[in-house]
Design goal:
The chain has three domains: 137 residues, FAD/NAD(P)-binding domain (3-Layer(bba) Sandwich), CATH 3.50.50; 116 residues, FAD/NAD(P)-binding domain (3-Layer(bba) Sandwich); 119 residues, Enolase-like, domain 1 (2-Layer Sandwich), CATH 3.30.390. The chain has eleven helices and 24 strands. It has a five-stranded parallel β-sheet with strand order 4-3-2-8-19, covered by helices on one side.
């Protein structure tokens, strides 16, 4: 039997959820149905914290009460075909769902590297499924030697969290010379590495994995240099690739990158089909090149754009492109980054100037729990437009990166940053005299004068 709905959303992650709620606000008379392939969704960003920060993994379950209260229907099922000509979606159990507008929010799949022995027991890619993750948490708690492959955000956060168990040996393995190297310059990568080492994580950089050892279950890892370590559980934190299979089968194209091609309003080549979140293609803010950035914050921003514009373009978009904005913490060290790093800016051929500043996040610095904050800003040399920023410090500085993102998005100039107005308080911020964002902007000017 055919089921009819107005707005059909495939995928119940952050983008599918936010899109449904936004669409309900803009088009209250329309019926909305979400088809999701996992009964118990989780909050993706909370996955690393299911080991010890949360007293039980269930606390990271995604709460769908807002959807139910808004009258949005949900069903668990797997979409296997999109018939765009007849505007219907067919599920694996034979269900047929007719739509006026379709939103593809199928997310991404973890990358499984082509390594000998990768399919042994005890090897865990990160799937966003509560029941799967509960078994992962149980397994890790029983393990003595835990190896995490991939030194990006996921890997670093898993290593930080699992190192809280004092009875475990934790290895963090990265192919490149530094951890977090895609999002930070060297001086920030070093801070993360030193912090993890102080928590007894063994950080192995410049290490390529060639084989997973063991009979049916993993018991070790062999590296390209011939060395080996013992491991009875392996977490794969290598990253994800957009899940575009359904879209491709329906004849939609990927453009130049790995994600589904979309316009400024998240419309695919088919006016009635939208794509949002990890499965949708992204373009970098300064170059418009394909961007591999996948973040819940970007997914929900795209979801709001799509949800508002499903039937007519209500929210006009001026912002073109993705500003990769990240924050993470290793124990009590916060690291955050937005826009281009010095390294990526130079690789792209931009002429840049750099300003750095340090400040204590309270004034006077003798107040309890004060911590130092380091800020690095990157501006275009001639136009002096803000292009990127990085921050390291205590929890107080976590939201600072969002000021930088807003500055990048509104194309703030160095001299505007040097004179912008801000609030301070002894317990809450650095002194107005040493305020880091302003001093970093001033220091970049000095650098420009020397060239």
């Amino acid at each position: 039997m055919d089921h009819k709905t107005d707005i059909l959303i495939i995928g119940g992650g952050p983008s599918g959820t936010v899109c449904a709620l936004t669409a309900k606000k803009y088009y209250p008379g329309k019926e909305i149905l979400i088809i999701k392939n996992v009964a118990n969704n989780v909050i993706p960003c909370g996955i690393p914290y299911m080991f010890s920060s949360l007293d039980k993994p269930e606390k990271n379950k995604f709460d769908d009460s807002a959807l139910r209260n808004a009258g949005i229907e949900m069903l668990v099922g797997e979409a296997k075909e999109i018939d765009r000509e007849n505007k219907k979606v067919i599920t694996t159990d034979g269900g047929i769902y007719l739509y006026e507008k379709l939103v593809i929010a199928t997310g991404s799949n973890p990358i499984i590297p082509d390594i000998k022995g990768i399919n042994k027991k005890g090897i865990y890619p990160i799937h966003k499924n509560l029941d799967y993750l509960k078994s992962l948490v149980d397994e890790i708690k029983e393990s003595k030697n835990v190896a995490i492959i991939g030194g990006g955000f996921i890997g670093v956060e898993f290593a930080d969290e699992i190192s809280k168990f004092k009875d475990k040996k934790v290895y963090l393995i990265e192919l490149l010379p530094r951890l977090l190297t895609n999002s930070f310059d060297e001086e920030f990568c070093t801070l993360a590495e030193e912090k993890l080492k102080s928590q007894t994580v063994e950080v192995l950089t410049n290490k390529g994995v060639v084989e997973i050892l063991g009979s049916s279950k993993v018991d070790g890892i062999k590296f390209s240099d011939g060395s080996e370590i013992a491991a009875d559980a392996v977490i794969l934190g290598i990253g994800s690739i957009p899940d575009t299979e359904l879209a491709l089968k329906s004849g939609l194209s990927l453009g130049k990158g790995n994600g589904i091609w979309v316009d400024e309003y998240m419309r695919t080549a088919d006016q009635d089909v939208f794509a949002i979140g990890d499965c949708a293609g992204k373009r970098e803010f300064f170059t418009r090149k394909d961007s591999p950035t996948m973040l819940a914050s970007i997914a929900t921003s795209e979801a709001r754009i799509a949800g508002a514009n499903l039937y007519s373009l209500k929210v006009v978009r001026e912002n073109k492109g993705v500003i990769a904005a990240y924050s993470t913490c290793v124990s009590d060290l916060v690291l955050a980054s937005a826009g281009l790093t010095e390294k990526t800016a130079r690789e792209e051929g931009f002429e840049i100037i750099i300003g750095k500043a340090k400040a204590v996040d309270k004034h006077p610095g003798a107040l309890p729990d004060a911590s130092p904050v380091m800020v690095k800003l990157i501006f275009s040399k001639d136009s002096e437009v803000l292009m990127g920023g990085q921050i390291a410090g205590g929890f107080s500085c976590a939201e600072l990166i969002n000021i930088i993102v807003m500055g990048i998005e509104s194309r703030i100039l160095r001299n505007e940053m040097e004179t912008f107005q801000f609030a301070t308080h002894p317990y809450l911020t650095p002194s107005p005299v040493t305020y880091h964002l302003i001093n970093a902007a001033m220091n970049a000017k000095k650098q420009n004068g020397h060239h």
